[in-house]
Design a protein that fits this description.
3-stranded antiparallel beta sheet; 199 residues; single chain; Immunoglobulin-like; 5-stranded mixed beta sheet; globular; alpha+beta
Length: 199
């Protein structure tokens, strides 16, 4: 009976040890669970997901794209300013001769005339647009500082035009140096020298 009581006591001690071991084993999984729970706290990487809005905020860089779009707007503005057409009215040139065609242009340019050539023409070429302008031709005999005549014409044009002036001498021209001075609205623009001589 004593043996059985001792064995019962041993059994009870062994059983108690097993219960303690089993209790420790039951406590281990919960201890491991918090570790898993702490890994579940790894949603901290998920908290890096909210950082992803930073790239989304870089998507706000379309503002930069809109400034890039603004650049082409300024470029055409500069392009339209550059080709401003010059429509101002001006004298382009003067040609002297002894005959003109139907367009009032001198047929053959000359700077020397024979005394027998009764009429001398000056074709004045102009460019630009005007609704009212006055061209004048002042003819002078330089050797005697003598004014021969001054004539004026009013013109209106929308582009290139030719205005013809002439001076006529029913008698032979005296030999020597001459000039014609062209003025636009009273302002001297250009002069053309010529001479009269035999041969």
């Amino acid at each position: 009976m004593k043996l059985s009581a001792r064995s019962a006591a041993l059994y009870s001690i062994t059983f108690a040890g097993l219960l303690t071991l089993s209790a420790c084993g039951k406590n281990e999984p919960p201890a491991a669970a918090p570790a898993a729970a702490s890994t579940a706290a790894a949603p901290a990487p998920a908290s890096t997901a909210p950082v992803a809005p930073a790239p989304a905020s870089t998507a706000a860089h379309p503002a930069a794209a809109s400034t890039a779009a603004a650049a082409p707007v300024t470029a055409p503005a500069a392009a339209t300013a550059a080709p401003a057409a010059d429509t101002s009215f001006k004298v382009a040139g003067v040609v002297l001769g002894n005959a003109v065609n139907a367009e009032h242009k001198v047929t053959k340019a000359k700077s020397s005339f024979a005394p027998s050539e009764k009429t001398i023409y000056a074709s004045v070429g102009t460019e630009g647009t005007t609704s009212s302008a006055t061209l004048s031709a002042k003819w002078t005999y330089l050797d005697k500082s003598q004014l021969i005549t001054t004539t004026s014409q009013s013109i209106a044009t929308e582009g290139a035009a030719t205005t013809t002036f002439k001076v006529v001498n029913p008698n032979p021209w005296p030999e020597g140096k001459y000039k014609v001075e062209i003025s636009l609205d009273g302002k001297s623009i250009t002069t053309q020298n010529f001479e009269v001589k035999k041969g």
